[in-house]
């Protein structure tokens, strides 16, 4: 039996944002949604990217008969009354997958989010490219000062100097950087192609362990507890 939604408790909403493509926003959004769903939470995955990768994943999963989170499409008006707030009432958690280089959608997502999650690739160039996304977050905070934000390093080649340089560059940002990170693992892409999250597709793979660590740390950062299936 799934955990029940607590009455009068609005869902916690995460927006995965960033101006640079290829940082792993969609992969992270899908794998987090799948893992949190596996833990018994009612999860809504919002595909705000016109490329519709998350929706395609959900369709593949449905056709394969897999038990995955609900996935819907929304756009630049998702923060408006009667939009996401109405749909999200039946869920514990919402993850919004935003497209790169689309300020209107990212601004809308940040107006609806409790936590902005900024995936960042493994090089100093990726770290430098976060500046414009961080500016959008700060802009959103002028209206919503309680908005939290954090950075998740992705596609990292462990124990390399370039990855360490990227982390050092991120340390200069005024945003929390998660200790947990995702490596450059083929299992992530294989899982998505199969219509699964990496923790159900390859639970013994290093990628699954990394995803669980990121998920746990992100939940602690957001001050949430994952309620297991009753």
The low-confidence runs, each spanning 5 or more residues with pLDDT under 50, are 1-7
What would the principal axes of the Cα set say about the shape?
A: globular
Strand content: 5-15%
Order of helices and strands: EHEHEHEHEHHEHEHHH
Name given to the CATH architecture: 3-Layer(aba) Sandwich
CATH topology group: Rossmann fold
Largest sheet: 7 strands, parallel
Helical content stands at 40-55%
Report what the structure shows.
- By secondary structure, the protein is α/β, with parallel strands linked by helices.
- It has a single domain, classed as Rossmann fold (3-Layer(aba) Sandwich).
- It is 40% helix and 14% strand.
- The protein has a seven-stranded parallel β-sheet with strand order 3-2-4-1-5-6-7, sandwiched between helices.
- It is globular, with a radius of gyration of 16 Å.
- The relative contact order is 0.20.
- The N terminus is likely disordered.
Which characteristics define this entry?
230 residues, 10 helices, Rossmann fold, alpha/beta, disordered N terminus, 7-stranded parallel β-sheet, 7 strands
